[in-house]
Amino acid sequence: MKKLAIISLLVLLPFGLFAYSMSTTYEAVEQLGYLDKQLRAIMTDVELWLGWGFEEKDLGKKVMESALKDLSDLKKEISAFEVTGELTSIKDLELGAINRLEKIYSDIYKKDEKQIGEEFKTFHEFSKKYLVDFEAAVKKYARQPKFPKDFNPISEELALAGSSQDKEAYQKAIDKMQQRKFKDAALLLKDLLSKYHETAFGDCIKVRLSDCWLNEDNDSKDIFTTEEQDKGVKFLKDIIDSNRYSPVLYNTFLRWRTKEQEMNHGMSNMSDIPNKEYNKKRWLLVQVIRRYLKSNPSDKWAMNQINLLISIPNIERGGTYGNYNLNYYGMLYMDLEKEEKKPSAESRFKKVVDSQGNAYEVAENGDIYSEGAPKPGRQPASVENIDYYFNESLQLEVNGHIPEAFTMYAEILSLPEANESVKTLQRGIRLRIERLYNSDGQMKKKLLMYFDIKELKDGSLKINPKSNPK
Length: 470
Fold this sequence. Notes:
The chain is mainly alpha-helical and 470 residues long. It is built from 20 helices and 5 strands. The chain has helices at residues 6-11, 23-52, 57-80, 87-105, 113-128, 131-141, 154-158, 164-178, 182-193, 200-214, 226-241, 249-264, 275-295, 300-311, 325-333, 336-340, 386-398, 402-414, 420-439, 441-447, and strands at residues 349-353, 359-363, 368-369, 451-455, 461-465.
């Protein structure tokens, strides 16, 4: 399957600029921003076929039928949305975009790549004509709270603490997190949470705790249990579903969406990306903040949270290593400063071919960089080269090669427990399988093709590889 150059045209479309947004006028701009996100969600769904399955015409027909229905429904929603003055032209722009997309998508599976590219080029040129007027309207009608130069959003969280002692403990926990001492931070936050259940400050504490439990700092000795990690994910969903205002709604949405995509849908370019559902959650949070602002109209941070929520781009496809949720995941749950310190020049990487013919690169600090691509006829995992196979199996899963990843997981679990390194890596594989098993019914079915999994009374899983996977 070939990836079309059309994708580069889609990425350049200026509609993402609707993502910024006084009385009903600024609320109208915000809603136009939300509706635009839903338009782009439809386009992202189509990109999966255009970029990675164009030759599958039967699939293309189904994809376009679904996209055309979604465009029709969205057109009705935008048409029913009443705006006045200058915003009328913005509304007309979105309707015009939908009309043009409908023409492009109609019988697209009967068109060749050149024709589709020309149609998208025309679509892009149409969009650019309105860009200057739209930017002027956004600047005129957007919520634009002014903050002092030394403003820090954490001050909004600290203001909710019930005592100076609790405020001091919360700040200390944040300091510990910045030092990447997550275990110490989590202990402080857990003590605080017991006093603030079902409150806005409790939600702030939960987000911080979630960050501690879910962080993937490989150099840290702060190892948390699967139960704690699952609870970290649950905390995010609980805040999203609470209908309660807090100063961390923007942060919570970004984290919830990132984990939801990573755990239940995947981070490859071919993974399902339910942007439409994510955007509905995004818009529900905007409504929560609007209700709060009715009784707190001078809360500048609340206003800014709306801008931030609407400005978050949809998760797009087309990254070098997978969809763009990888970027969010790295930003939120990995030590990027540490990653940036890794050697980048080729001379600082050592190319290795191990005793089984596996080729990969090793950085000066010992980190392994493997391709994560299926290799027909490869050798099975071994104790001698387990570090490579562990890295490669996880990279296969990230890249969406699930059968190959699960096969390699099973091989690693079948190895004799020859030393502590093998035991540690096997434990890591079992933890990953347990997370996948508990997060997604479809993934559970796939796992059971490769592993015998027994649910124990204490809630843990007994996992063994099948001798003859189906």
